[in-house]
Amino acid sequence: GAVVSQHPSWVICKSGTSVKIECRSLDFQATTMFWYRQFPKQSLMLMATSNEGSKATYEQGVEKDKFLINHASLTLSTLTVTSAHPEDSSFYICSASAGGSGKDTQYFGPGTRLTVL
Amino acid sequence: DAKTTQPPSMDCAEGRAANLPCNHSTISGNEYVYWYRQIHSQGPQYIIHGLKNNETNEMASLIITEDRKSSTLILPHATLRDTAVYYCIVNTAAGNKLTFGGGTRVLVKP
Questions:
Q1: Residues of chain B contacting A95 with CB distance shorter than 8 Å
Q2: Is the dihedral of CA B74, B79, B81, B83 positive or negative?
Q3: CB neighbours (10 Å) of residue B40?
Q4: Residue B16: its pLDDT value, please?
Q5: Which of A4, A32, A86, A107 is the most exposed, fewest CB within 10 Å of its CB?
């Protein structure tokens, strides 16, 4: 149980284009979903938290107009990187949780590697 | 959120128990201790979590000291596939935000 998928697993795009990444909870309803970014040899950094049907809450320093997050259902959240640039190249990882408190375990997807040329 | 301190790396012998320490001296009474691991180029994998009591599942055991200021993750019989970065994280009861530190890079050797 507690499986989270991401699609695509990797993507290469040209600078200036937009890329959408999907995150799905396959066997549970995710009230809360999270998006992280990980640069090479670094740890995961939380980008934003989204609750189903609500606007996402972004961490300090993360541009909400550049990283559009939609959490329209209890099993799907999407992250769209708009006007991507080479510095946006990174490993993007989502997680999903059945609830919003510390006792609700976050389960992570396999990640999406984005390369912007 | 309470911070955690872990050794940056450790080696373990295949087939032996691996004991991974974590200090969280500023933990609050309602904060949980979570352990995840990340194998290269994959998303983190949930291992175990606890509040006050020791916990055990099919993957590992979590031993939390009585004062809750530290904990130890025990992998009972380490295999080569357990080579990964292990993260000890204290999770706030409100908001459920995970803050990843540097973790411990565990290398299981034959």
A1: 43-44, 98
A2: positive
A3: 7
A4: 97
A5: A86
Task: Tell me the pairing of strands B9-13 and B104-109.
Answer: parallel
B101/A43 Cβ within 8 A: yes
Q: What's the pLDDT tens digit per position in B13-38?
A: 999 999 999 999 999 888 899 999 99
- Mean pLDDT for B42-62 is 95
Rounded to an integer, what distance in angstroms lies between the CA atom of residue B74 and that of residue B56? Answer: 9
In three-state form (DSSP H/G/I as H, E/B as E, the rest C), the secondary structure along B58-106 is: CCCEEEECCCCCEEEEEECCCCHHHCEEEEEEEECCECCCCCCCCCEEE
Parallel, antiparallel or unpaired: strands B32-38 and B84-91 = antiparallel
Q: Do B100 and A44 touch (CB under 8 A)?
A: yes
Residue A89 — φ and ψ, nearest 5°? Answer: -60, 125
Tens digit of pLDDT for each residue in A44-66? 999 999 988 888 999 999 999 99
On the 0-12 / 13-18 / 19+ scale of CB atoms within 10 A, B8 is exposed
Q: What is the pLDDT of residue A27?
A: 93
Torsion angle (degrees, nearest 10) of CA B98, B25, B33, B55: 170
- Residue A87, min C-alpha distance to chain B (Å): 19
pLDDT tens-digit map of A96-114: 999 877 788 999 999 999 9
Phi/psi of residue B9, nearest 5 degrees: -155, 160
Q: Which residue has the tokens 């609500």?
A: A54
